[in-house]
Amino acid sequence: MTDDARISLLIVDDHPVVRDGLRGMFASAPGFTVVGEAANGVEAVERAGALDPDVILMDLRMPGGGGVDAIAELTRRRCRARVLVLTTYDTDSDTLPAIEAGATGYLLKDAPREDLFTAVRAAAEGRTVLSPAIASRLVSAVRAPAPAESLSAREREVLVLVAKGTSNREIARELFISEATVKTHLTHVYAKLGVKDRAAAVATAYERGILG
């Protein structure tokens, strides 16, 4: 595999041992290359601009600049990189703000290495990644359930496939509709759920009991 075919990674964590471990893990697996590291969110934004990685592995709670603020700033700057949160925290106060800020996915640090590799590949393709533990947290965090009737049957079908990490092209093929129609359905879903992207739509749908 050539370097051009590799997924480039920026690792963001305030613990050097964690960064070293992740670097070694990805170095031992084909298809990945770690292009840089950062110890906090402020450094992450700077390094992302300079290195242009495909995926950023982002911790959340870091001295000198947290992950959520960094994700929001990367989103504001329209950074190309997909942000995959990798943290030990799975509380509502951590999960939802990160996803709402623009994270493509959310994993816990106890995830098996193969799951992490799979998640990074999915994130690089722009697919939503939520660990089972996080999905369970979102389901249990239901506060103000919204009736599923607020989405049409077709919109729910599209959202279910999005939650499975299915791309727009794959959704179009499975439902026998055009990609443009898929995008139209997603636009309606975002508007009805009050969100701006796929990850937030899935998180909100779990939270309100529409999915699950």
Question: Could you explain how this protein is built, in words?
Answer:
- This protein is an alpha/beta fold.
- 51% of the residues lie in helices and 14% in strands.
- It has helices at residues 16-27, 41-51, 67-76, 92-101, 113-124, 132-140, 153-163, 168-175, 179-193, 198-207, and strands spanning 7-12, 32-38, 55-58, 82-87, 105-108, 129-130.
- The chain has a six-stranded parallel sheet with strand order 2-1-3-4-5-6, with helices on both faces.
- The termini are far apart.
Strand order of the largest sheet: 2-1-3-4-5-6
Helix content: 40-55%
Any idea what the shape is? globular
Q: Which residues sit in consecutive blocks of at least 5 with pLDDT less than 50?
A: none
Report the structural category: alpha/beta
Largest sheet: 6 strands, parallel
Radius of gyration: 17 Å
Number of helices: 10
CA(first)-CA(last) distance: 38 Å
Strand content: 5-15%
Could you spell the SSE succession in H and E letters? EHEHEHEHEHEHHHHH
Counting DSSP E segments of at least 2 residues, the number of strands comes to: 6
Mean pLDDT: 88
